[in-house]
Amino acid sequence: MTDLSLTTASRPRVMRLAVPALLLALLVVAPMLAYPLFVMKLLCFALFASAFNLLLGYTGLLSFGHATFFGGAGYVTAHAIKAWGLEPLSAILLGTLAATAMGLVMGAVAIRRQGIYFAMTTLALSQMAYFLFLRAPFTNAEDGIQNVPRGAALGLIDLNDITHLYVLVAGIFVLGMGIIWQVIHSPFGHVLRAIRENETRAQSLGYRVDRYKLGAFVISAGLTGLAGATKVLVFQIATLNDVSWQMSGSVILMGLLGGVGTAAGPSVGAGLIITIENYLATTGFPVQVILGLIFILCVLTFRQGIVGTLAARLRRA
Amino acid sequence: MAEFMGIPLPVLFGQLLIGLFNGAFYAILSLGLAIIFGLLRVINFAHGALYMLGAFAAFLMGEWLGLSFWVLLIAAPLAVAAFAALVERLLLSWLRGLDPLYGLLLTFGLALVIEGLFQWRFGVAGQQFPMPASLSGTTILGPLILPHYRVFVILAALAVCLLTWAAIERTRIGAILRAATENRPLAEAFGFNVPLLMTATYAFGAGLAGLAGVLAAPVFQVSPLMGTNLIIVVFAVVVIGGMGSIGGAILAGLMLGLAEGLTKVVYPEASNIIVFVIMAIVLFFRPAGLFGKAA
Amino acid sequence: MADLLNIQGLQGWYGESHVLHGIDLTVRPGETVALIGRNGAGKTTTLRALMKLLDRRAGRIELDGQDLMALPRHKVAGRGLGYVPEERGIFTSLSVAENLRLLPRTGKGMDDAQIFEFFPNLRERLSSDGGKLSGGEQQMLAIARVLRTGPRLLLLDEPTEGLAPVIVQRIGQMLRALKDQGLAMLLVEQNLSFARALADRFYLIENGRITGSFDRSEFEAHADRVAATVGV
């Protein structure tokens, strides 16, 4: 199952410092260039797609059920704030922990099958979670949890102030991406890549492959939850849409379009998909047709994604 | 009134019949998925969309051409199969030799496009499809209430599954299909046009999905999204049955339909998720599936 | 006499790796030719290249003066190549009878009576699963099914591999009988004494190249080179 991924190229040292610096600068100026709410949505989805990519790009596991963690964390955070009056940061933490726990359960079942069956299993389990959320007493079924108050972080910083909120969301984004970066470059991450390249060989080298896979799955689920919980604070709503298979499909497309197995690819993919969705929302043409066409095009002609293809060009040049 | 464990018998039998009815659809659909996966190594995510296309083909051909149900039962699956043959030739054939995950993603994209276009054209509301008059009656046999159409669907599905199974296990073309499923390049080197066989196999599996769609049309409403949730349940059925055997796919489909029906009687709240719960349990104890060979 | 099989400058690739570097080889009508070399020298690959089972090929392959290179894979066998692949290639999901009768006929092949005269064991096993046969029975089935198609040239990939000596002897007798009936064969073999007893002409192959060829009468004179090539 190594075919979907791209080996990370070693880059010159300058690039290694320049890229993060550039990104930080971009984070600072972005809310001045576009609607801050839109930028925050982008950041949430970029983190979501990057967390998903930790699994597909760096471990070789295609999860078709990540919406469960994204939307599930959102429900927990929304409920904790609205019904229990929890402080927003704690609520985000709680949502993240809930997603981590869901990841542990789904992962423990799904890693018992490999490859294509893994994908189908995660999809089925995620659909089960969808029905559970639909029926659960606190999610209000089709209506969702609406008008979630943003509150004040630590009881001090008013998050209804859009600048405060932006700083918080950007901070969470940097934190999440930092964790992903650390995981990829840790010894743990190297084992994950060894599993991606050749699972049987990793096993014969003495690694308990299932534990590593489960570990990657849980981390990915937790970070996905972090993104989903944060999104609730931004949009003040938690809905069924975020736990649906369509959402799981969207995040796959973000990864695929941007470049699976590249650090920046999923963020680029998320940006493009979110922009396209926003644009099409005003035309009345069904978004999913366009998304489906992009899926088909990516799979047929563009399997390395935008960033993957660019990186390959640069290496050849 | 007669009861079994506190449940009135007519209710129990009624739900079992509905379970078997749903199981018939699972069986036809998972059979098609298994045949396609066997030869093409593609998990056909578009299977639900093809099922929907079958229902819509029947609905539209009925409206425009005034064809009878019995003609549609043949014509609509053929139309779906022809469409699928094009899909295989124009899209899927490009993915030969790649990771099977790409096939899943491509057909996922295809399902989004097909369902999106139909939603755009016809809206999400369902269209009514008339039940054939000759099958609209009901027979009451003691505690058994038998709506003719449902019984017909169950019998028709069983017949189609058995015929397909026999064709694969007992005929020469079936032997060629099994040989190519086992070793594609060698079968080709021995003189069989395997690319053509793959197109035909995809078309056949799609035709089965289309047939399921026609059979579903008079009972469920014909709507663009009728296949989306169904296909995920069928995926779970396939994971439970294991895709190693044709018989396993059929049997798992029927069994899970029954399990769903029973759940509706015992604990209705769980009937939506029972298949997924069973899948999780099976995976835990038999990762290769009930009828699958160990990977 | 014109060559039955004529291979010139045949090159072959598995994915990116270049494995055949220009094979020149001929088989005359009725002749048995053995291709000898060690593991990984390109023997099996040469046969696979003939059947178009490689990712990429270059060079010329002619059977009876007709080009085989341009044919699609499923048309190659139809020109009269009877391929007995490495490890037999029996389809385990098919019964013995199905395996035997699967391949399309390409010429005037043996009928069932002739097949069972040659391979009496197969008659009793017709309804078994292909995968349940012993190694020797599988080998006989693999040969029998191509004889049924009526090939002009038999391509045999290590027909004795992993078989008990008594079975090897039996297979040797069968191939000898086929040879006496005038069937041409290209034999890939590591078992030198088996090849020597059967073949009229020998080719040595090393690292994807033909490094020598000689007649049966010259085998003794080339014994040292053969030993060095095969590494015994």
3D architecture notes:
Chain A is mainly α. Chain A has a domain at 35-244. In chain A, 73% of the residues lie in helices and 1% in strands. The longest helix of chain A is centred in the last third of the chain and has 27 residues, at 209-235. Mean pLDDT of chain A is 90; it is low at 1-10. By secondary structure, chain B is mainly alpha-helical. Chain B has 2 domains: 38-119 and 131-222, no CATH class; 227-295, no CATH class. Chain B has 11 helices and 4 strands, in the order ββααααββααααααα. Chain B has helices at residues 9-40, 47-65, 69-90, 100-122, 148-170, 172-182, 184-189, 194-216, 228-241, 246-266, 274-285; strands spanning 3-4, 7-8, 138-141, 144-147. A two-stranded antiparallel ribbon of chain B has the order 1-2. In chain B, strand 3 (138-141) and strand 4 form a beta hairpin. In chain B, helix 1 (9-40) packs across helix 9 (228-241), helix 3 (69-90) runs antiparallel to helix 8 (194-216) and helix 9 crosses helix 10. Chain B is globular, with a radius of gyration of 19 Å. The mean pLDDT of chain B is 92. Chain C is α/β, with parallel strands linked by helices and 232 residues long. Chain C has a single domain (29-55, 81-230), classed as P-loop containing nucleotide triphosphate hydrolases (Rossmann fold, 3-Layer(aba) Sandwich). Helices cover 33% and strands 28% of the residues of chain C. Chain C has helices at residues 43-50, 73-76, 96-102, 112-118, 120-124, 135-149, 165-180, 192-198, 223-230, and strands spanning 5-14, 17-27, 32-36, 56-63, 66-67, 81-84, 153-157, 184-189, 201-206, 209-215. The mean pLDDT of chain C is 92. Chains in contact: A-B, B-C. Chain A binds chain B through residues 1-4, 62, 109-110, 112-117, 119-121, 123-125, 127-128, 131-132, 135, 245, 249, 252, 256, 285-289, 291-296, 298-300, 303, and chain B through 43, 91, 94-95, 98-102, 104-106, 108-117, 119-120, 228-229, 232-233, 235-236, 238-239, 269, 272-273, 275-277, 279-280, 283-284, 287, 295.
